[in-house]
Amino acid sequence: MVLLAQALYVKRKTPRLPGAAGPTEGLVPGDGEPFRLAVLGESTVDGVGAADHEEALTGCLARELARDGRAVRWQAVGRTGANARVTRAELVPLVRPADLVVIALGVNDTIELRTAPAYRRDLLRLVLELRGRLGPVDVLVAGVPPMSRFPALPRPLRDVLAARSTALDRAAATLERIPGVRHLPMDPALLDPAAFASDRFHPGPAGYARWAGTLARAVIS
Predict the structure, then answer these.
(1) E strands within the chain?
(2) Is 102 helix (H, G, I), strand (E, B) or coil?
């Protein structure tokens, strides 16, 4: 009963921020044929907490990948509230041909108390669906954010969701057994209070920029 009461309180009191405004596709100018980046997932890909996609996760990541002078064409395919199953069924068909697809999921699956084996199965089906449509595209699975660091969550609800987010992230990491798929756990240090938007649940522009930097280094390394 305590957890249910806390969950209802958080849902009622947390400000409902909109997704990022503006185009969901863009080009960072540079040399040569553009590197094609698609980012797929939940509200962080929808850009909640940022004014537009230029300062949200996808735009920040595209600029990081363009630091070596190459052109990067980017696409953000996100939906607030989407879990892995919804993403596979409804968002994957919207992804354009890409050289790299970054998947950012897990918070909604955590909140829904999805089990680790079920989440792994959903992600696997998602990757297979992507490759069935796009061919053998490289995939980077961003780690499930450690919900122990979310300021909007009170205890003990925070502790329960933290344990579940950790379990789901470990399940996601097993997809690295698939050639061309990489998993990058999120460093909890990225989620200090300054990284969050006004709802204290989603990243703000500074949080997106820092997260994008870690993802870019994983791609480039």
Answers:
(1) 25-28, 31-41, 70-78, 100-104, 138-142, 181-184
(2) strand
3-state secondary structure of 9: helix
Q: Are 191 and 149 in contact (CB under 8 A)?
A: yes
Backbone angles phi and psi of 200, in degrees to 5: 60, 25
Dihedral sign computed on CA atoms, order 209, 76, 169, 217:
negative
Give me the chain's average pLDDT, please.
Answer: 93
Over residues 85-89, the mean pLDDT reads 98
131: amino acid identity, one letter: R
Give CA–CA dist 99/145, Å, rounded: 25
Q: How far apart are CA 195 and CA 151, in angstroms?
A: 11
Q: Which two tokens stand for residue 115?
A: 């089990």
Q: Which 8-state DSSP code applies to residue 89?
A: I
Is the pLDDT reported for residue 8 higher than 80?
Answer: no
How many Å separate Cα 207 from the centre of its chain? 12
Strands 25-28 and 70-78 come out as antiparallel
Q: What is the pTM of this model?
A: 0.94
Assigned token pair, 180? 């061309």
- Structure tokens belonging to residue 5: 């009461």
Give alpha helix (H) positions in the chain.
2-13, 43-46, 57-65, 84-86, 107-111, 116-134, 157-173, 205-220
Helix axes 157-173, 116-134, angle to 10 degrees: 50
Helices (H), ranges, 87-115: 107-111
